[in-house]
Design brief:
The complex is a heterodimer. Chain A is mainly alpha-helical. Chain A has one domain. Chain A has 8 helices and no strands. The longest helix of chain A has 33 residues. Chain B has one domain. In chain B, 83% of the residues lie in helices and 0% in strands. Classes of the chains: A mainly alpha, B mainly alpha. Chains A and B meet through helix 5 and helix 6 of A and helix 8 and helix 9 of B.
């Protein structure tokens, strides 16, 4: 049990195990992603009110769900690196930030594209949209703070503190934005609740959410491998790796 | 060597901060002048129509107070970091949680509280309804304390960085959102003739949560800054 944790602290071991996981996970992810997309985009019935435009939901909902979960992945990795000084958790936190920011951005863009034909406007200061935008800025804050430090060890710890502060704040921000919205104007547009969705649309959606979680994991592992190589560029195992790659 | 009792130490730290502020009155006046200046920009930008100005007054007053608090929090630890007294504070046997809290208290007394007391003047100039002025002062007094706590987190995380100013805004502004919502909603509720107490209660709840948790983050940030 403990040897597993000791191994987890070893960059070459983590690099190779991440490579092995990727070799299996990446093809599976692609298959599930394509299957879910084809099912959702081609073989589901059109919505009786929104027609075909609702189909962007199969991209929009998974990106939004994983973007939120990604913040917690980043914060938990940050907490682990802060408490146990585990360097690999620091690598994971650093790798998670840009992926999360990208997913949040995608969720906002796909939401806007859907909003134009459906609500007649690109942007609505709705509670969820506003808190997603704030989440996007929280992600950017972590990335910019990391970049600002020259000492990368301090950068990792500072980002860990910041992402933990953000974790406490996300529910508060979400609830207060929700309340602010309901104070200012009645909810004229409601998102379709999960329970009111027909199973013919729900199953491909669930499949897409699973596919996006898998895709997130793949991106995280790939980013972690790159980050490991960058940090360990001067060590022996990276040199050996490059020599072997050159031979192969 | 015997150490000071913690309460006495905190009082001295607070007194030192306030004395330092009093010795450079321009630094104390700066955020207040900034507050006034930016308020002046709104009638110029939005047009002098009193109906529009009165309608936007709660939001304007709160946003400008928030920016003044943000601008001053950047310099909070900077000079103490530069001359090494911050390092001594971290080495001292006093609990850092409480030392940090007295920094925050000093920051709030110098900027937040003064802004809250100044705000009625500008509120009248913007044509805010008279019954909303007392709630404005109360919500600013409570809310800026939360802003000081959150701003200090940003200041502690950027203390060792040369280019703090813009960075701290990006780190801290998203975290200011809940305070802005309930602060300006309190004033708006008073304008519309509703009870203000629920909003003030929520601001007070945020303040309690902030006092309980923020000093840990500030202390961690300062330790990272000293190490870096």
């Amino acid at each position: 049990m403990w040897s597993f944790f000791h191994k987890l602290g070893s960059p070459p071991w983590l690099y190779s195990i991440a490579g092995t996981i990727l070799r299996w996970l990446l093809p599976i992810t692609l298959v599930v992603l394509v299957a879910g997309a084809v099912w959702g985009l081609l073989y589901t019935p059109p919505d009786f009110r929104q027609g075909n435009s609702y189909r962007i939901m199969y991209i929009h909902v998974p990106t939004a769900v994983v973007a939120l979960a990604g913040y917690y992945v980043m914060a938990i990795a940050g907490a682990i690196s802060l408490i146990w000084r585990m360097k690999m958790a620091d690598v994971a936190m650093r790798a998670a930030a840009p992926i999360g920011a990208m997913l949040t951005f995608l969720a906002l863009v796909t939401g806007a594209i859907w909003g134009k034909p459906t609500w007649g406007t690109w942007w609505e200061w709705d509670a969820r949209i506003t808190s997603m935008l704030v989440l996007f800025f929280l992600y950017l804050g972590v990335m910019v703070l990391y970049d600002a430090y020259d000492n990368k060890e301090a950068a990792g710890r500072a980002c860990a503190v910041l992402s933990l502060v953000g974790t406490v704040n996300i529910p508060i921000i979400y609830k207060s934005v929700d309340w602010w919205y309901s104070l200012h104007q009645p909810a004229s547009i409601k998102f379709t609740g999960e329970s009111t969705i027909d199973s013919s649309m729900l199953y491909p959606l669930l499949l897409m959410i699973v596919a996006f979680y898998a895709l997130y994991t793949c991106c995280l592992l790939m980013n972690m491998r790159t980050e490991l190589l960058r940090r360990e560029a001067r060590t022996g195992w990276v040199r050996r790796l490059i020599v072997e790659e050159g031979k192969g | 060597m015997n150490t000071l009792p913690t309460v006495a130490f905190m009082r001295r730290l607070l007194r030192r901060q306030l004395l330092l502020a009093l010795r450079s009155p321009v630094d104390v006046a700066n955020p207040l002048i900034f507050f006034g200046m930016v308020i002046v920009l709104f009638p110029i930008g939005l047009g002098p129509d009193p109906v529009i100005l009165a309608r936007f007054a709660p939001g304007i007053l709160w946003i400008v107070a928030l920016l003044s608090s943000l601008l001053t929090s950047d310099a909070l630890f900077r000079s103490d970091f530069d001359d090494g007294s911050l390092e001594q504070l971290l080495l001292s046997p006093q609990p850092l949680y409480l030392s940090v809290l007295s920094y925050v208290l000093a920051h709030w007394l110098i900027t937040g509280l003064l802004l809250a007391l100044m705000a009625p003047l500008f509120a009248i100039m913007l044509g805010l309804a008279v019954q909303a002025i007392a709630p404005l002062v109360a919500s600013l007094a409570l809310g800026t304390a939360v802003l000081s706590l959150v701003g200090c987190i940003g200041a502690s995380l950027t203390v060792s960085l040369r280019r703090g100013g813009m960075l701290i805004a990006l780190l801290v502004l998203p975290l200011y959102v809940p305070v802005l919502i309930f602060g300006s909603a309190a004033v708006q509720a008073a304008v519309d003739g509703f009870s203000v107490l629920p909003y003030l209660a929520i601001l007070a709840a945020m303040l309690s949560l902030g006092i309980a948790l923020a000093p840990f983050a500030i202390a961690a940030g300062l330790r990272i800054g000293i190490d870096a």
